[in-house]
Amino acid sequence: MIHRQPELKNVPFVLALPDHGRMRITEVNVFAKAKGIFAGMVVTDAKIIIPGLQVFDDHLNLADKLLKRLCNWCIRFTPIAAVDGTDGLILDITGCVHLWGSEPLYLKAIMNKLKSFGFNVRAAIADTIGAAWAVCRYGKIKAIINPNDQREALMALPPAALRLDDMIIDRLQKLGLYTISSFMNIPRSALRRRFGQQLLLRLDQAFGKEEEIIQPLQPVEAYMERLPCLQPIQTAVGIEIALQQLLENLCNRLLKEGKGIRVAVFKGYRVDSKTESISISTNHPSHHINHLFKLFELKIATIEPALGIELFTLEASKVEDIVPLQETFWTANGNLESKEVAELLDHLESKFGSNILHRYLPNEHHLPEHSIKLAASLKEEPTTTWPSDKTRPIQLLQKPKPIEVTAPIPDYPPMNFRYEGKLHTIKKADACERIEAEWWHKPGLQRDYYVVEDEEGKRYWVFRSGHYNSDTKPSWFIHGFFA
Asked: Distance (Å, rounded) from C-alpha 350 to C-alpha 347?
């Protein structure tokens, strides 16, 4: 709330929800808490203590949503971030600290950022989740625990620092075991018999004897590169430099593993906590840096850096193995497996949209409009070969269009035809080719196709549907155009 309304930064305020006809406080800020206001108090009682107390309506699941948003925001510091209960976050900072110089500087950067948003923050760094959790919530001296110093750091802390059930904590306190040091050296068999397996598990997790796995809010992509920025980036040139560096790192890795990108997402994490992203896809797996950069380059203008971008990431959400292909020396004709053709298709789809390019395969039907089918992908293999023994137009209409025809006698090609208001006089015509639908399909009239040429030298594919007889006159249609 302070992030959106900075004027509340130094003002006591609370969140409240209606409860049996009264407004009851659900959350309090630091200034309100310092003056004796606490969660669960009735708003009218709180206003007696602080007459000018600011009260805002709370919303169901607001805290949970806010915590998840903060968890996503923390991805700028580490790719592995998880929500811990209702009031905490767990970050796996392995391999990230050096980007900020040291652990103290890294921790300070995170805490200062969160405090600038108006949050009261406690944090700790340790080799185990259990030790960091305990020191963060119950520690009073240092927030950074050196490797293998977990036992010493936890000895003076209460049993609740081990994340134990309330029943176990009560039992420990009744026996006078008020600190972890008072029972940590008791034989394990005695602890198990009196307090159950959970106490031993939590001790082992805190001391590093039992591994504890983080379940990140966002699954970490197997192929992802990160680039933090010393200063927020606001220019297109800076964004391009960041993208180029990330592509080089990722593509060099993919090259060694014999893989290529099919889908990739480039993200920029802004200073104002918002995220900008652009994505590309390829028809064939590629680790060609220049080609991938050109695909992204077409979309960089859509990124709005605002006050600046402080972290860039590049995720390859889909990768595939690259199958080595035998180079062809004696032909200049490209094919779908050629790198040049694949990159051309990628460029066109990235610029004009993914639905502008279509590939067709032969289909075993006699009628021309049914003799082709749309391929499901560029890699789909045809089930039959393209017919090469018949003359077919370069452009085939999806549906034949009717034309007005003057024919000398039945079963002869037309002398002229009118199409879209223009009269075409026929100068040449090839012999008739009869085409009929398969008998197992819906029956229809046979078609007599002619290749005709008009006075301008343009060639057309026209057909007569049915025969001339005394009762009916057959219809004529145009079905395609030759070069």
From this structure: 5
Q: pLDDT digits over 168-224, tens only?
A: 999 999 999 999 999 999 999 999 999 999 999 999 999 999 988 888 888 777 888
Residue 18 pLDDT > 80, yes or no? Answer: yes
Query: Tokens 């789909």, residue?
Result: 380
- Starting at the earlier edge strand, list the strands of the sheet with 54-57: 22-28, 13-19, 54-57
Domain boundaries, the chain: 6-60, 76-207, 224-321, 395-481
**DSSP of 167-214:** HHHHHHHHTT--SGGGTTTS-HHHHHHHH-HHHHHHHHHHHTSS----
Average pLDDT over residues 6-21: 82
Q: Could you tell me which CATH number the domain at 6-60 has?
A: 3.40.1170.60
Mean pLDDT, residues 362-376: 84
pTM of the complete model beyond 0.70: no
Burial class (CB in 10 A: 0-12, 13-18, 19+), 430: middle
d(Cα 42, Cα 17) in Å, to the nearest integer? 10
Give residues with Cβ within 8 angstroms of 115, minimum separation 6: 121
Mean of the pLDDT values across residues 120-125? 90
Dihedral sign from CA coordinates of 297, 298, 300, 301: positive
Q: Which CATH number fits domain 224-321: 3.40.50.300, 3.30.1490.100, 3.40.390.10, 3.90.180.10?
A: 3.30.1490.100
Report how far residue 150's alpha carbon sits from residue 154's, in angstroms, rounded to the nearest whole number.
Answer: 6
- pLDDT for the residue 218: 81
Residue ranges in 258-389 assigned as alpha helix (H) = 289-297, 339-352
End-to-end alpha-carbon separation of the chain, Å? 68
**How far apart (Å, rounded) are the C-alpha atoms in residues 90 and 264?**
27
48: which residues sit within 8 A by CB, 6+ positions away? none
Residue keyed to tokens 């800076």: 238
pLDDT of 260 over the 80 cut: yes
